[in-house]
Amino acid sequence: MMLRASQQQLLLPAKPTFIWGSLVGALALGMLGNFVLWGRAPWAPDVLAVTLVFWGVHQPRRVGMTGAFLFGLLMDVHQGSVLGQHALAYSVLSFFAIAIHRRILWFPVSGQTLQVLPILAAAHLVALAVRMMLGGPFPGWSLLLAPVIEALLWPVVTLLLLLPQRRTPNPDVNRPI
Known about the structure:
mainly alpha, disordered N terminus, elongated, 177 residues
């Protein structure tokens, strides 16, 4: 029996070690990106933010605002920015992701991309507002590209982070899931 395009595959539960490991990996990728890949470019995507939104949507009870706040503090320390700038932005990001997690899951991945874009934009606006209130310079209009690039990363992140949940626990030729 094959699944039709309108049917969805049942997913295995996400393991907590995989959830937190993916968040630590996204933090490491974000830190590595600041040094090697794109530097401190305003348009640079924040992979940790996309991963936090993903787990906030798919596992809201396991990854909450506290985890987002702690990862934000780690990012603040790494970048040498105002302590609490990323922590506040990631907390807002996590709050909105958890608040609309049921609605987002009704859409296909392409529709989820459009639903996630305002959440990511709000987080960037919060970080920009904190930076500007404390006398930081305006990074330029290329900052508007960052949430768009992050939203375009949503299908890739969804595919990669759902892969371990799509495998069957006991493969059998007679069972489609």
